[in-house]
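Reposting from the mailing list since nobody answered there.

I have sequence plus structure tokens for a pair of proteins and want to know whether others read the tokens the same way I do. The first protein:
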Amino acid sequence: MERISTLILVDDDTQRRVAISDALTSYDLRVEPFEHVCQLADAWPRSGVILIHDGPCAINRLIEAMARQSQWFPMVAFSEKPEVQRVVQAVLNGAIDYLVWPASAEELAQTVNSAIERATGAGSAKLREVMARARVDRLTRRERQVLGAVAGGLSNRLIGEKLSISPRTVEIHRANMLHKLGASHTSDAIRIAIEASLTH
């Protein structure tokens, strides 16, 4: 596999972008700076690892953009004095590491290189998960419940009993759910549910 040598930097603070770019000039990493995720979406890169400032909704926007592009990049989040819960949330959302800013050039390079090593081979699985979650997000609450019950192996009658609706209503929700997921068969829907970590 070709070595990733591009750092895609997403940060709305000009001074930080300059500081990070300058800090990494002596390392074998080319920095492509972007102010916002929408800028990145307009000039989608072919490869790289993303270093993103963990601002409000930034990681969620990046994940949505990657799902739209059907391409997953290893992602490292960073912010100043992050609370533990913020770090945990970023990792749950797909970040493979979290950096506390300010950081030295050596720390930056180590973190990015470590992210590259850990992400090799994990990209396609993560992409499938992101794509599946993006599909599941289109469903209504009731359609999600039906999907979860279908993935759990329940019949329309049992799903109806569980949700206190008629089997005919279950059929309607099930048909809508399959359509929104782009699934031809129930087995496709179950695979999507598993990839989205909706079931185990």
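The second protein, same order (residues first, tokens after):
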Amino acid sequence: MVYETGSGPVEALRDITLSVADGEFVSLVGPSGCGKSTMLRVLAGLRPATSGSIIVDGQPVTRPISKVGMVFQAAVLLKWRTVLENVLLPAELAGLNPRRYRDRANDLLKLVGLEGFATKRPGELSGGMQQRVALCRALLLDPPLLLMDEPFGALDAMTRDDMNLELLRVWGEAGEGGRKTVLFVTHSIPEAVFLSDRVVVMSPRPGRIADVVTVDLPRPRTVESRATAEFGALSLRIYDLLTGRRADAPGRPLQALS
């Protein structure tokens, strides 16, 4: 992926080759500006790749696709609409009758613990509750692919932990045809390890895949999972890949992958 700018071309992604299985949870970690968000937008068809090909469910991606739900760092809710109306927005934008999706919207709100908040406005909700609404909105049309771009990055630590657990529960329960396929962008190594089946470690721009780490921790994941030696070893391995140093060697300078 190459962007054209006034000062010349900027190469955002180079030589990316990645396959993600149905129902798999894969996280992308890497330094700021390495192209993680760009990769999600290319996968969704929101930006055309400069070269190469994108295949989703056996079909080449040449334009925005309908089989995807997206969740961003900010909830981006319409403040003049109720919670239920915000969740129903994808149906309206798709030219569908929102009334047909009211039951599903209410079921999703119940699933994420927001039963009874359907008539509230976004300004009446906490940040974590707003992100739950954004997740429901992304799931309304039951897309098989869910792309999440640092959705919990702006939340406090305890709320973020709660949302991690909530996401894993919804990932396992919300889909009618089984688990969603999830690509999740984060700067948090522990979050990536806790959520994922695999963690894709990216290099600085132009973004390339430095390594792919398999997370073989048992599911369902719990808070106690974070306290295991296996969790710590996986986190340290990813840290090593990102920084080029060991966490137990504080005297050495950080070295970015090149």
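Reply #1 (J.P.):
I read it the same way you do. The longest strand covers residues 209-214.
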